[in-house]
Each structure stands twice: as C-alpha cells, then as structure tokens.
Amino acid sequence: MNWLLEPFQYAFMRQALLASLLIGTTCSLLGVYVVLRRMAFLGDAVAHTTLPGLVIAYLNHWNLFVGAIVAAVITALGIGWLSRGKRLREDTAIGVIFSGMFALGIVMISRVQSYRDFSHMLFGNVLGVTTADLVGIALVSFLVCTVLLLVNKELMLTTVDPLHGQSIGLSAERMRYLLLILLALTVVTGIQAVGVVLTTALIVTPAAAASLITRRLDRMLLLAVLFSACSSVAGLYASYYYSISSGGAIVLACTVLFGVAYLATRIHWRELPAEHDAT
Amino acid sequence: MNQSPGLPHSHEEPWLPYSGRGHRDPQAGQPAVQVEHLSVRYRKAGSDALHAVSLEVAVGQRVALVGPNGAGKSTLLKTLAGLVKPQSGQVALYGNPVGACHHRTAYLPQRTDLDWQSPLTVSDLVMTGRYVHLGWLSWPSQADRVRVRRVLERLGIADLAERQIGDLSGGQQQRTLLARALVQEASLFLLDEPLNAVDEATRDVVDEVLTQHTQNGGSVLVATHDLGRLTESFDSAVYLREGRVESILPFGSGPLASLAAHPAARGANE
C-alpha cells in the first residue's frame, strides 16, 4: 500500500498526476475522431509545428503555452486552407507546412544556440508542471471537452457521412476546421506532458487501442479515456520508481496497452470463425 | 420551357444554415422539383457535367433518371440536394431555393459514399435522419427513438437495430439508408442507384416504400440502371446522355408503352 501512495506524498507528483489525467482525457477523446477520420499524421504535424511558436514565446519572455497555441492554430488553419476543396491533397499540405514550420523552429533554436533550454519542449516534463500550467491545461481541457460534447453528433455525422451532413446544411468543411482548431489546442496540452515529439502518441494510441476492442462510438470514447488514464498512472509510477522520463514512460504505457488490445483481438478473431462455422 | 416568375437562381440563392429554423413551407401549386436550363461544371473538368437541363417532378410523382455511366444522373441529384453548386440555371424545390428545403429533401447517396466501417449501429445511423430537425445543441428525444424503431420495423430490419453498420449486407445497408430518409420525414426523396447489387427482397421493400410515399403525397426522383420495373414503378423517366436531357418518357399517358422499346432507353445500360 505504501508503495502505491508514496509517490503522491509529493506535491509535484500530485500535480503531475492531475495534469496527466486532464491531458490524457482531452487527447484521447479527440483522438477517437482523429483516428476515425484517419488524421493521425495531422496531429503529428501540428505538434511539431508548435516549435517556432514556443521559441518565439521563449525569446520574448511570453507565455510558452500561448505561443504554442498560436502556432498550432495557425498551422491547423493553414493546412485546412491549403487543402480546401481538395485543390491540394491534405497529406501534401501537411508535408509542406509541417516541414516548413519545424525547420523554422530549428533555425530559431540555432540562433539561440542553446538546445538544452528547449529539450523540455521537445520531450516534455509533466513533473515540472506549475500551478499556472495546470490552470492553463484545465481551461483548455474543459474548453475542448465541452465543445466535443456539444457538437458530438455533428462531428460524428460529418465523419461517417459528410454528404448527408452537407445535404442538411451542415458544412463538413467547417466541422473540419473546428476539429483542426480543437486538435491544435489539444496538442498544446499534450506538449506539456510528453513534449512535441511524442504528443501524437497520446492522441492516437489510446483511441487506436479502443477502436480495436469496440465498434461502438460511445464505448470507444470511454475506453480511450480509460486507457489514457491507466497509461498516465502507470507511466508516472514507472517514472518515479525507475527514474526514467515521465513523458516517455506514459507513451510506452500507452503502447503496451495497444499491444495487449491488439493481441487480445487477434486471439478473439482467431476463435470467431469456428463459432461462425458452427452456426 | 418558359421560366417561371420568381424561380430562384441556383448559383445566387441563399444557403440556410443547419437546423430546423429558417426552413420554408412549400409554395402552393408548385412542383416538387423544377429545374430550368441547369448547367454544372466540375472545377477540373473540360466540359459540363450537366448542360441546360430542364425537368419537372410534380408532387406525388415518381420519376426515374436513366442513362449510361457519366450521363450526369448523380450530379443532378447532388445539385438538387445542395451538394453541388451549379454554374447557371434555376432550381426550385416546392417553389423554394434548395437551401430552404433541407428538412423536406432526403438524399440517399450510393452506398459506396459512406464509411461503413464507422463505429455506429444501424439505429445510430438511422437517427442521423432526425438531425435536420434537431439542429445544434439538441439531442434525440424518446419520440425520435420511437420513430426510428417504427421505421426499422416497417423495413424489416428491427432485429438489426444494434448491429454495427459494417456487418450489414448490401441489401441491409440500402434498407438502413432508406430508413434514415423515412425518419427524416422528407417529402422529396432523391435516390442514387438504390437497387444496385441488392437482393430481390430489398427491391420489393424499396418499391413498396416508394409507392406508399408517393401515395401519401411525397415525390421521388431515382437514378437507376435497373430498367426491369421501370414502366410499372415510375410515372415517367428522364433519359440523360452526356449531361443533356435526351428525352422525357411519360409512362401510361404517352405514346410509349415501354421504355425498353425506346431507342434512347436501349442505350441506358450501355
């Protein structure tokens, strides 16, 4: 019992747990739509393109959180605008903006000539989350989750059948922009926990694991949140007891859960044909 | 065909937002569909997908759109459903612009247009037919759920209500889409190839539902390659070729007893 409670005797661990759970919930809820819309690469791109925003904010002593949000939203809208009406394929627009913005961030870092200052942005440090960071994360998480709840049926419809949505006056394009903005906000919260490089995993992996287990949207959303919560807790314990990177440990825990879900479904499907043959 | 006074210009008409608010009632005495000199061109296409198309579907009529692949059948349906913006011409549904009739028009796409692997059950998908009446920040009520259940029973798929849509056969998928149109309680059905690769039982169900719909004052426009039941099931057929109306064939009242006898129609399955 003491083993379980010991890490959370420290305030920084309690803050880290709260931040991880908030971030995990937001990332995994949005992640379900990202996975269903096959936008996983987009999450990765938005995460990487926050780098110049973070660097500019750092150099000007602004709030890093705000710098990242501005860069992420600009990226998301830029990708949406470039690929609107299918003039340019979305993956091409992502490739152009992703590499351009990330390169800009690297050039800016090289001007500062201190890679170490930015390592916590690249790899995250949830153990260093301050109370002010926690308030920011809570506000963004609340905003994203509330919007998701309010437009859940419209997001679902434009994901499954955009033509029907459009035929009843629901613009699939506008819903896509909304999702991109939510994705940008979510990515920024993820950066606090696992950094620029690993944020996509927090969005995609729990949702992907849930999609292997169930084909009901409501259950998929619940399972994704459950997986991310379990990963956050397991990752923090591993980080505390083995002195390893908290962000890396959380993402690895997500990956292990995905592996278990994958194996479980493989075994389940291997058994199913025999049942079907019998009927 | 003379242009009716006040017929809305398709390319200039207002687009009403999603929700039950702002939709207009039918104008008295107006046909369900009135299309005049409609031209549509896709952005990268070299020629018009539809060129100066004019046709009319009266209230209570069931009209078939026939023609070879690429004739413009799907484009015409999509234009009427508000999915494609025309370059020129006029379109009116019940005397109103397309955008004013979201709730009154049910568009059934070809089954391949949907992502059937989505994590939805049959009743979830059918419930999306109620969204046009619900709009933003409203959720399906008990009455909506009862509507869905009754329609599923009527189409013989009540036992599939909780089944994942990816597990359905082609015929079951088509019935599910038809169920969605029915719960929408639309007056005008626009169906794109509803009989493609479906079983005979589903064909009978589709036929029966559409017959009842027109008997109740609804109107139906169906793009189809299936000429088998054309003369017995439809009031008329519009033959499209290369984006133009080649002929409009009224069944029963015209000189043509059977579409199959018409040289234009013989090309429909080419």
> If you compute it from the alpha carbons, what radius of gyration of chain A comes out, rounded to the nearest whole angstrom?
19 Å
H/E series of chain B: EEEHEEHHHHEHEHEEH
CATH superfamily of chain A: ABC transporter involved in vitamin B12 uptake, BtuC
Biggest chain-to-chain interface with counts: A-B, 26 and 35 residues
CATH architecture group name of chain A: Orthogonal Bundle
CATH H level of chain B: which superfamily? P-loop containing nucleotide triphosphate hydrolases
Describe this structure in words.
The complex is a heterodimer of chains A (279) and B (270). Chain A is mainly alpha-helical and 279 residues long. Helices cover 84% and strands 0% of the residues of chain A. Chain B has a six-stranded mixed beta sheet with strand order 5-6-7-3-8-9, with helices on both faces. The model of chain B is unreliable at 1-5, 10-14 and 253-270 (pLDDT under 50). Chains A and B meet through helix 9 and helix 10 of A and helix 3 of B.
